[in-house]
Amino acid sequence: MNIKKQIEYWKKSAEHDMDTANSLIKEKKYDWALFLSHLVLEKMLKAIFVKKKKSFPPKTHNLILLMKELGFEVSEDEYDFFEEVNTFNISTRYPDEQLKFYKLCTAEFTLKKFAQIKSKYQWLKKELNQ
């Protein structure tokens, strides 16, 4: 496995998804913006995983699991935040959850969560560059 190539793959994919999520916010496609935002954090965690562990990351979408694998210690509030963001991935994939999630994704809710996600994205970028 080419470590640098794998890290670059996850990093570039996260950047692309963040750009797309920003576009979706502008278009008021809030549910899909949050879905992609989850992927942004997931891909950054996977880039960090490859860098630190020198192996392929686990095939999971669970942010908490990835953070535990990496040894990140977070506050209870941060844990709750990442647990909530995990639901953004599930809520858009299953028809019985989609409508509930769509209704939850008001402009106010989405913009608040998106700002938090962007902040976590910047933190993960710093972690990756250390």
What does this protein look like?
- The protein is an all-alpha fold.
- The protein has a single domain (3-129), classed as Nucleotidyltransferases  domain 2 (Four Helix Bundle (Hemerythrin (Met), subunit A), Up-down Bundle).
- 81% of the residues lie in helices and 0% in strands.
- The protein is built from 6 helices and no strands.
- The protein has helices spanning 3-26, 30-53, 63-70, 76-91, 95-104, 107-129.
- The radius of gyration is 14 Å and the shape is globular.
- 29% of the residues are buried.
- The mean pLDDT is 94.
Radius of gyration: 14 Å
Q: What series of H and E elements makes up the topology?
A: HHHHHH
Mean pLDDT: 94
CATH superfamily: Nucleotidyltransferases  domain 2
Helix-and-strand structural type:
mainly alpha
Unreliable parts: none
Fraction of residues in β-strands: under 5%
CATH topology: Four Helix Bundle (Hemerythrin (Met), subunit A)
Main sheet: strands, sense, barrel: none
- Total number of domains: 1
The first-to-last residue Cα distance is 21 Å
Task: Give the proportion of residues in helices.
Answer: over 70%
Using the coordinates above, name the CATH class: Mainly Alpha
**Number of strand elements:** 0
Shape: globular
Individual helix count: 6
Q: From the coordinates shown, what is the CATH architecture? A: Up-down Bundle
